Amino acid sequence: MINVEEIYKLMDQDPSKEDKALIKKAYDFAEKAHEGQKRASGDPYFVHVFETAKNLARFGMDATTISAGLLHDTIEDTGTSPETIEKEFGKMILCIVNGVTKLGKLKYQGHERHAESLRKFFLAVADDYRVLIVKLADRLHNLQTLKYIRPEKQKRIALESLEIYAPLANRLGIGKLKGELEDAAFPYVFPKEHEMVKKMLEEKTVTAIAELKNIEADLTKELHKQKITIIRVSYRIKHLYSLWKKLQQYKMDIEKIYDIMALRVIVPTVEDCYRVLGIIHSIWNPLPNRIKDYIALPKLNGYQSIHTTIFTGSGSIAEIQIRTPEMHGRAEYGVASHFAYKESNEKLKKNIHPGSHRKFQWIDEFKELGKNTEKPDNFLETVKKDFFTDRIFVFTPKGDVIDLPEDSSPIDFAYAIHSEVGEKTAGAKINGKMAPLAAKLKNGDIVEITTNKNAHPASKWLDYVKTNLARKHIKQYVDNNSLINKYILKRFK
Ligand code: MN
User: Fold this and answer.
1) Residue 173 backbone phi and psi in degrees, to 5
2) Which of 283, 308, 323 corresponds to the end of one domain?
């Protein structure tokens, strides 16, 4: 039997009386609206919106978004009028439901249409990131019930999830959702590969867990001795699809992949993280070149953690990840994590390594806004603008999405595709028309780069590139060249 209590239980913080009242109202409304409708599985349709809402609760979303999740198919599938939703639940929830309905009309239909669909998709999304999160939660449940759908449709939906939805979840920093979407889609797109990777992983898991348990025991003993508070130690098993992608880089040799299983250590502060790293290296030998400090140098989507890989002493190798609870929240929930971790701005600043502060400006700004705004709805309005306005999404002629800072030029785009493309850029077409290399790209542009083997970077390019990647390559080329020129001038004067 399904019950609204299941949603409350999955929420990260105990919902208030008002939150519960709102969710219950949406729950009852949706149940009634979908009455008599069935899914392809034979289940009542309401099960689908209920599961979508549960996904949203699991990913740390608030009562407004969860309610919108319950209502997300009412306008499209039950003939409920937008006016009714607005009257009963307010403008905010109507906006989210409308956004999700709009996205539902987009279909992935091969390359030509693909770019166009994606473009509309993004433009709709840029309106409010919660629309996207509801859509992702909806898609996750559709993938989980894909076996009831006819095969051609299965493959289209699964492929679209791998190529569009999962990368978006990643862009929003919701690692957990990205992993679940990919793993649900994987068997439908690459059935043989999925079987193979699953078997490989199963064989590894038993011994790896035993190994990690030993490491955990030794490590916790030492941390207690050193008086470091441990908030949590857990394991994470690599998601199947990401394991498969990695296997391809290593000629399918699973022995070369060291992070299949990782021990995850959560400690209170950044200082503790570095102390734990020191303690780990004093017990076990680290593998050279495998120590990654994503605390000082976060990944682009905001991911922070320290990773190290050690020789366990019994012939095998293991990865250990060290992070604070806040970093953990962001890694799992991404843009949604401010619902899960409502600590004060001050505490956040203290916990972030000084060098990383700038990269996390947007998160700090979220917190600041949250403090100064009475109504959470206004807070979200502002958040979504900040999150999307500094980035643009442009497309290759094949429909691949490239995400760049605002005001980027075709040169930035070329280097983002590949450094060799950047190096040999001779011209650019934007939306099918010739354009100067200094042009400023706009959200949704389709960009085509013409290359020429005799072309090379010019120092004036530095005036209009916005990405560090392009700047670095151009500077390198220009500097090398001026050295060669000086040398030639000197020799042949
Ligand atoms: Mn749906």
Assistant:
1) 80, 15
2) 323
